[in-house]
Design goal:
Layout: H1 2-10, E1 17-18, E2 31-34, E3 42-44, E4 51-55, H2 62-65, E5 75-76, E6 96-105, E7 111-119, E8 122-128, E9 134-139, E10 156-162, E11 166-175, E12 183-190, H3 191-226, H4 229-248, H5 251-255, H6 261-266, H7 270-285, H8 288-291, H9 293-320, H10 322-348, H11 353-376, H12 384-492, H13 495-499, E13 504-510, E14 518-525, E15 528-536, H14 540-560, H15 566-582, E16 594-602, E17 607-613, E18 617-621, E19 624-628, E20 649-652, E21 658-662, E22 670-671, E23 676-677, H16 680-690, H17 695-710, E24 719-725
Parallel strand pairs: 1-3, 2-6
Antiparallel strand pairs: 3-12, 4-5, 4-6, 6-11, 7-10, 7-12, 8-9, 8-11, 13-24, 14-15, 15-16, 16-17, 17-20, 18-19, 18-21, 21-24, 22-23
């Protein structure tokens, strides 16, 4: 069967070529005789018998060339070669040449002929008639299709009219506008016989593309229905093959790109995109990563990578380095062909029906590809029909392979379903057995549950009684706490009353519980304002009791005893708090106390005095934040042997200064992305960032920052921040 397939591939129709030329000395004019008995044959004109002129400046016109005195300037083809030997490529890229061709028609009527030129990008064909008239026809693969005559067909060609029983002279001006020399391969064929061949070609191409698009649509339908990418790769392979042949036979340029011949010229490289999807299709069709992993890893993947690389590089090479492109392209063709042969031979030894069909399909494309490569190297006449036939046969076999694969998957699915049904039946029997055992156990447990139900009911009634007692106790405690909250609020006073001593300010007061261990206190003695921010030991009710005690002592110290110096206020408060809490047992070391900031502000001298018990004072001046540290001693802690000292510090306030008093609750709050403390440094930086804002907005920003930092965590401690501006 393989011998028959090879014979089929290499026996495509070819044309019979015939040349009749009169011979003589090279300086003579040579005339190609056209006879009626060879009207349906194709004449080939050997460049060796033609004469050329190199128009280096591309400045001559047909009127100059056709003058009799210009005739001696034409040279035989052999003299164009620098070596003086006969050469098939004596021409240079980007250089204009003229060639004179003479025909004699021995036919008794006007006949139209097609003059095929070869590989030239731009050409002008001038037919000279005895009356001195010239007929000009443009040709070349870079000439817009709309300007060609005829527009159909692949090769560079021009239509000429030969008069009966007379000689016709044709001048051809040609050049290549790419980095590759022109290849002038003149041949002559009657327009009538060429039209017959074109009709046959159009019929073949119509059937071929119709079948391709049926395959394309069917496989895309399977891909979207089943979701198997194998069908998508096959459909894309078919799509780019169809576009390649549609372009190569000039249908794309004739019908869609009549003004873009360069684009059509470079779209030749669509074939390499098709070859990429061909590899991907084979890889998925045979499931190489699972079935032949070593072949896939060490051969197919590199093959695919190099093919993708060349497909991406082919267009830039085609445009900018065409002379290199030809050699690289031929080398890639050989590489791809060898790779496909190796791949096919490896797959051939797998005893699998699907693999055998893939091998058969690859054999057809190998045959066509081999003939194409041999055609590129001039071993056999070049024809795309080799590849066309190979692709058609391969696609037919691949469709058979995909049908075989689909049927095989259906059989495997059916077998899997049958196994699943058997497994389900076994599971059902096992489930029935388990259910019976469970029913027996349920009956046993039901009896036990009924017995314990009465015990649980008794326990439930007892718990219900306890729960009601706890609810009543909780309500009493909550009511007491709310009452304590109202009392504390009445003692602390309203925020606007405290802040009325200053030009502008705010108090951020956020108790952890209903009542707070933090408190603020303010008073005015003459023109001196006194402001206190205190943080008592503990929070909740114990802390609130300490706030009431501290508030009471401050009233006595400042309002009754008129002590207004901050350090004296702290000393007096410390002594009275210790005496009050300690009571009679002086040997018992108490741990109840408070941290505190005390400031006084003289409205006349703008002098601010500060003393602190552990807590500092912050103030911002000229966009810089300053920290004034207080004493390291707390108020009321009696188990410290050192003598307590509360130092007085004075600040000459300036208009616009902003001062902040606070407890440590804000900076000790846990939260943020790492569930860590807010910390003092971050607190100072935030105060500096917001100090320029109005005081109510600063309060809002602080509360917003606190809530964002806390997130879902519970509040760690009471929060107290007082800010004012002078």
């Amino acid at each position: 069967m393989r011998i028959v397939l090879i014979f089929f591939l290499i026996s495509f129709p070819t044309f019979t070529w015939k040349l009749k030329a009169q011979s003589g000395a090279l300086a003579q004019k040579y005339v190609t005789q056209v006879d009626s008995d060879s009207f349906h044959q194709k004449y080939t004109l050997d460049n060796y018998y033609l004469r050329f002129y190199e128009d280096k400046g591309n400045s001559l016109k047909i009127e100059d060339i056709a003058k009799p005195e210009f005739e001696p300037k034409f040279k035989p083809f052999i003299q164009l070669s620098s070596s003086g030997q006969k050469s098939s490529h004596p021409f240079q890229a980007f250089t204009t040449y003229w060639v004179e061709v003479n025909f004699r028609s021995n036919i008794d009527q006007d006949t139209e002929w097609l003059l095929f030129l070869g590989f030239v990008s731009h050409a002008e064909v001038y037919t000279y008639y005895p009356n001195g008239r010239f007929e000009k026809v443009k040709a070349g693969f870079f000439t817009p299709n709309i300007e060609l005559k005829p527009r159909e067909g692949q090769e560079a060609k021009a239509i000429i009219l030969l008069k009966p029983q007379s000689k016709t002279t044709v001048y051809i001006k040609f050049r290549n506008e790419i980095k590759y020399p022109p290849e002038l391969n003149l041949s002559l064929q009657s327009y009538e016989s060429w039209q017959v061949l074109m009709n046959q070609t159009n019929l073949v191409q119509g059937v071929f593309h119709g079948l391709l698009w049926l395959m394309l649509l069917y496989n895309f339908f399977l891909f979207f229905s089943i979701g198997d990418k194998t069908y998508a790769h096959f459909a894309l392979y078919v799509l780019f093959m169809s576009l390649f042949f549609f372009n190569e036979y000039e249908y794309l340029e004739e019908y869609f790109l009549p003004y873009q011949p360069q684009l059509s010229f470079y779209l030749y490289n669509l074939i390499y995109v098709a070859l990429v999807y061909f590899i991907r299709f084979n890889r998925r069709m045979l499931n190489l990563p699972a079935n032949i992993p070593r072949l896939d890893k060490f051969f197919v993947r590199p093959w695919l990578f190099l093919s993708i690389t060349f497909a991406l590089a082919s267009v830039p090479l085609h445009i900018f380095l065409f002379d290199w492109y030809i050699d690289i392209r031929n080398g890639f063709h050989l590489f791809y062909l060898v790779s496909l042969i190796i791949f096919t031979l490896v797959v051939l030894f797998r005893r699998d029906g699907l693999a055998q069909l893939i091998v058969l399909g690859n054999f057809f494309i190998l045959s066509g590809g081999l003939l194409i490569v041999l055609g590129n190297f001039g071993v056999v006449p070049f024809s795309l029909y080799y590849l066309l036939g190979g692709v058609a046969a391969q696609l037919f076999v691949f469709m058979m392979a995909m049908s075989y694969r689909y049927r095989k998957s259906l059989i495997e699915r059916q077998e899997t379903q049958e196994k699943l049904i058997i497994q389900l039946q076994e599971n059902k029997e096992l489930q029935t057995k388990v259910n019976r055992e469970l029913e027996d156990k349920v009956r046993e447990r039901t009896i036990e549950i009924e017995q314990k139900k009465e015990e649980i009911q008794t326990q439930h009634e007892a718990l219900q009684t306890k729960s009601e007692e706890l609810e009543r106790a909780y309500k009493n405690i909550t009511d007491s706490a709310r009452y304590a909250q109202r009392l504390q609020g009445a003692i602390l006073g309203e925020e606007r009353e405290v802040l009325s001593f200053f030009q502008d300010g705010f108090i951020l007061f956020l108790p952890k519980d209903l009542v707070s261990g933090d408190f603020y206190w303010a008073s005015k003695i003459g023109h001196t304002n006194v402001l206190v921010a205190a943080d008592c030991t503990g929070h909740g009710i114990p802390g609130a009791l300490m706030t009431m005690l501290g508030n009471s002592i401050l009233n006595a110290v400042v309002n009754e005893d008129h002590i207004t110096s901050p350090e004296h206020i702290l000393h007096t408060l410390d002594e009275r708090l210790i005496r009050t809490v300690q009571k009679q047992n002086r040997d018992e070391q108490i741990k109840d106390g408070m941290d505190m900031v005390v400031i006084t502000f003289d409205e006349i001298s703008y002098t601010l005095k500060f003393a602190g018990a552990k807590n500092p004072l912050y103030y911002v001046r000229n966009h810089e934040i300053h920290k004034v540290d207080g004493s390291t001693f707390p108020i009321g802690i009696y188990n410290i042997r050192k003598e307590k000292k509360f130092e007085l510090q004075e600040i000459q306030a300036q208009i616009g200064d902003t001062f902040y008093l606070s407890s440590d609750g804000f900076q000790d709050q846990f939260g943020g992305p790492h569930d860590s403390k807010y910390m003092k440094k971050k607190f100072r930086e935030f105060l500096l960032d917001i100090h320029h804002l109005p005081m109510p907005e600063q309060k809002h920003k602080l509360e917003e920052e606190f809530l964002n930092w806390k997130g879902s965590n519970s509040q760690t401690d009471d929060i107290l921040i007082i800010g004012f501006r002078v």
